[in-house]
Every structure is written in C-alpha cells, then in structure tokens.
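In the current project phase, work has continued on tokenised descriptions of protein folds. One protein thus recorded appears below exactly as we store it.

——
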Amino acid sequence: MQLPDAEATFRELAEKVRGAVTRETALVGIHTGGAWLAERLREDLGLSGPLGTLDVSFYRDDFDKIGLHRDVKRTAIPFDVAGRDILLVDDVLYTGRTIRAALNELFDYGRPARVRLAALIDRGGRELPIAAEFIGAEVALAPGQSVELLKDAKGKLSLQLHHD
C-alpha cells in the first residue's frame, strides 16, 4: 500500500480550509499530530485567532482497556471557548472515538458557537457517527494496518504505515 505524500496532503487540506475560516477562527489541535497540523495551518493561512491543544487521554472511552499513554501532553486552551468558532484538527480520523473524547474535553471549557473538524487522513472504519468537514486524503487500509503522522527536526511531515 502506497501512502500519499504528507506534505502534498497537508497543502490539499490547507486549501480546503482556507475559504472556510476567518482570521479569528480558533484552531485546536489534538496531540500530537493534530497539534502539529493546527500550528502549520495557523501559520500557512495567516490566521490570527488563538491556537489551542488537547490531550484526550483521560477522556477516551477505552481508557480502562488501553491504560494511560506513556507520553501524555498538556491540554492548553488559552482562550474563552464560549461562543467561539473552532476548527478541531486531527491527523488520522478512524473510529471517531478520539474526536468524541476531544469534543467532551472541549465542552468542559465552554460551549462553542460551532466546531468543525479537519483531518489530514480519513481511513474510514467509523464506530461513531462522526465525519470531518475537511479532509486532506482518504486512505483504505487493510485490517491490522495503521498510519502515523511523523514530523522531522525541520518540521517536514511524513506518513508511516504500521502492521499490528
């Protein structure tokens, strides 16, 4: 299976998002890959709205099964969520459970006016009725495969295929 080029896919996602956000739209990236993408989108699109990050580790519905991830990041929402237009950003959209957890955590900070979802990769396989409004690319993976977004020291993005 050949994965798409991450940088080209990011540019595709950025173009789709460009006309749908204002300079004041708040971007919130889900750690880790979604946070990288939110930072790049904010910079590349020239947005001046705030940037937040979420670590949904404690909000996942499978926390009791998978335990705590060894690299828990800090959630940082440095703005008032209430009444705000928010673009939630994730790297790979799969079952929808991470997005559900992110929405639960986000609403703990207030009730936004609107939340839209952008994902670099949509790999299908939804277990919850969640869909991204903006997608860089769709990828069909075989059972037992997963995809991970990586970022090198220079900030270049790449995708890596894993076999479970």
Notes: The chain has one domain: 6-163.
